[in-house]
Amino acid sequence: MSNPVSYNAHGPVAVLRIQNPPVNALSQAVRQGLSEAMDRAEADADIKAVVIVGDGRAFIAGADITEFGKPPMEPNLPDLCSRIEASPLLVIASMHGVSLGGGLEVALSAHYRIAQPDARVGLPEVHLGLLPGAGGTQRLPRLTGAAKGIEIMTSGGQVKAAAALEMGIIDKIETGDPQEVGLAYATELVNSAAPRRAVSELAGPEAMDWDAAYSGAVSKARGQNSPGAIVRAVQAASELPFAQGLARERALFTELLQGDQSKGMIHAFFNERAVSNLPELKGVTPRALNAIGVIGGGTMGAGIATAALLAKMQVVLIETGEAQASAARGRIEGNLQGALKRGKISQEQYDALTQDALVVAIDYASLSDVDLVIEAVFENMDVKKEVFGKLDAVCKQGAILASNTSYLDVDEIAAATSRRSDVIGLHFFSPAHVMKLLEIVVADKTALDVVATSFALGKAFGKISVRAGVCDGFIGNRILAVYRTAADHMVLDGASPYQIDRALTDFGFAMGPFAVADLAGLDIGWMTRKRKAPDRHADERVPTYIDKLCEEGHFGQKTGEGYYLYEKGQRASVPNPKIPALIAAEQADLRITPRDFSDEEIVRRYMCAMVNEAAKVVEEGIARRPADVDMVLLFGYGFPRYRGGPLKWADLQGLDTVLADIERYAQEDAWFWKPATLLKTLVADGRNFDDLNRAAGK
């Protein structure tokens, strides 16, 4: 491979141009090239300044992710940054596109920074469970102050050039070719005898209430360690000389890198991209996607329509009557107004989307020209079959017919049409224009180009798209039903719903299962229990106490009463005093003597149930590989990202210990806790779920 860093002298200025497409990641070759180019510049008596510039669309977008998990290779990034900063020459970073992570750390080790107006900077290592480990926590706060520096690093967000200039991260904004802009700035600095200005030689940031900042960061992070570590590293920048602060940063970085949380987040980082790369779709051309139909304009249908409009597609939405159509249009316009307020679209774009791109109608014939139609009606098989029969009659040949069903058999839905190869499941999560997950449910007869088109749709919508097979609940809801059942069993046996919710939010879930049930609507679970009742196994334990609340018309948040009570217009909730009495009555009927549960036991049982069912989902081929399960739970079900997903969590715990617990629980309830064959096989073979991920990726 040729040197990815070119060297050219322009009078007294040497230009070091990084050429490592697509985003100039800081590979070992790039680090080596920069170090050698700095040596060359310093050896030339005629050179007074060095400009570091990136080729292509970015300055440096960060570390080379292909090196993650491998032994470090010299020169390491902290040493390179120190080496650049220590140069007797003036070093100028000319920045364009993004300068992220190690890219910004390289720029901070330069003596001056100039950027294009549309440049953005950031230190997003927190998203990998890490902190900036090449001086970022020590240099950035010396420019921005402690509070701003902590905010930038703990959020992992990107800072636009104008804001970066105001904070002191960059020195100047200039439009033009980055190399020419950098050369002009360097020449100006040389001609004015500007001093060499190392950030490390500036005073450390002023002290603040470090304990309060630490507590705030930890609380906001819901159990993730790296934000708190970032605060402590910035504290070191304030309290210690630079070299000692750098050593403290490195120690904290190493501790995080060796911990389970970074392993979980790096797993998530890699696999959120990998899950949509299906080997069977290589070389398969998707069908055209210009116009989308949506059946149903409720919360879900309106969200899907909104996502399609934001993806610059024409949308035809069908409702059952004029009043319903008007309400659906109002929901979509409300969603788009939110995008307008956030600056995602302009007023002109809003007007075009609502007036030109969106058609709301009550006649199925309006769908005659759409390329794909998504049904988002009531979760009832007879209703969905009726809809698909109508679609089969009016949609053009080659149009894809998709169901947004959460549980139902897509093969049975497809059988209601004469074009089974054109039918697929597209399970969105509400609100569909916000939530990142899309389960693509491939039926028995679904054509490959229909699958490819569905993944193209997911990409256009900005979704994490995961392939799923057909079964009751697919990947996510099938597993949800089981771990929610484990929670229900613990309630019958003595744990309160409120202790369970608290223990699981402490574990890192965005919400506990009973708060989630209230949010989704208790009627959903009630209908599912009734639907499954005729085929229920005799040994299955199914709590019925909550059905009594549903029979009274109480379905959670939307009615103001569920496991919790909700005041109108208030986000806060309080436990419903009816629930303990309903539980106690059922315990008495079943002759159960309640016992105490520790928070640790609650989490362990909940997670083991999740892992066991997830292993069965992989074993049966409903999920193509374990990482697919992990991404579904991360992006659709509030699983804490820093734990990587349930099967990554199981790997980190040790599959042998997880299996041992499941087998122990099976002594109490052999039907529910039957260990997955795959889990037993992996333990017997000394392998884990990551081994299966690697095998699937080959």
TrEMBL record:
Superkingdom of source: Bacteria
Subcellular location, record wording: Peroxisome
Enzyme class per UniProt: oxidoreductase
Database matches in PROSITE patterns: ENOYL_COA_HYDRATASE
Predominant subcellular localization, coarse grouping: other
Keyword Nucleotide-binding: no
Alphabetical GO biological process terms: fatty acid beta-oxidation
Record keywords: Fatty acid metabolism, Isomerase, Lipid degradation, Lipid metabolism, Lyase, Multifunctional enzyme, NAD, Oxidoreductase, Peroxisome
Domain 3-hydroxyacyl-CoA dehydrogenase NAD binding: 292-468
Membership in a protein family: Belongs to the enoyl-CoA hydratase/isomerase family.
Name of the protein described by the UniProt record: 3-hydroxyacyl-CoA dehydrogenase
